[in-house]
Amino acid sequence: MDNSVYRQQIKVPCYDTDAAQLLKPVSFMNYAQELANCHASVLGFGYDDMIRTRTAWVLSRMHIKFLRHPVWRETVNLRTWHKGPERLFYIRDFRMTDEADKEDLALATTSWLVVNIDTRRLTRDVPLDESCVCRDNAITPSCDKIVIPADAVRTLVASHTVSYSDIDLNGHTNNAMYLTWAMDVVGCGTTLKKPMKEVKINFNHETRAGEQVELYLSPYMKDGNEAYLVEGRAAGSEGPSSFSVEMLF
Q1: CA-to-CA distance for 97 and 207, rounded, in angstroms?
Q2: Distance between CA atoms of residues 215 and 234, nearest Å
Q3: 239 falls in which pLDDT band (50, 70, 90)?
Q4: What is the DSSP letter of 130?
Q5: 129-to-5, 126, 132, 134, 214 alpha-carbon distances in Å
Q6: What is the DSSP string of 5-43?
Q7: How far is 234 from 240, CA to CA, in rounded Å?
Q8: Is the pTM of this model over 0.85?
Q9: How many CA atoms, within 13 angstroms, populate the side-chain half-sphere of residue 212?
Q10: What per-residue confidence (pLDDT) applies to 1?
Q11: Residue 87 zone, left/alpha/beta (φ > 0; ψ -120 to 50; rest)
Q12: 114 vs 21: CA distance, rounded Å
């Protein structure tokens, strides 16, 4: 049996849509991370398998292209596959299609690291073999490092205290919440005016309950599209950012 591609059919619920009844980008991220865990479990390196060796998957980068946002009550197909190692990362792609499986709705590529949860050091302790690898590309190349345009105006616009609703089962902020914070910073005037076309996210440093994250907004134009870059930094810190999100509308 070929387990290299894992598929799930989803009927979009109302709580995963916005005021226009379109699937929220953050909901796509939630679907993707759950599907990734389900597939990893089938392949022998899911959460329960990894925790036995005190290791865990950590999402480092994500790039999503939305070709058409599905609507409330629409049935969609979501697929994922593991593409194997690439430098420090392990690459996993996703494809969302319509119910008939004829129209691409969203494409994504993700880059993951494996860390020892006690030492926080990187490890390559993954039971990965070629039989579970699929070389198909949803998006190529893999997500790169987000670079702020030299002429972008960077403004501190908000501060967020990491709270109960942000935290996942690993005890740190769930990756999808960073996109939620970013879209909240950009505001309904943009996010509801027209659907998101594309988003890239770099997860640079974990944040935990009680920590305060300063949010910086940089609006600019990119390839004829409205673009917004949101950076999150530990309050008062001059060190590396916690995350960067680039959104195109």
Answers
A1: 33
A2: 9
A3: low
A4: G
A5: 14, 9, 6, 11, 42
A6: EEEEEEEPPGGGB-TTSBBPHHHHHHHHHHHHHHHHHHH
A7: 9
A8: yes
A9: 6
A10: 62
A11: left
A12: 36
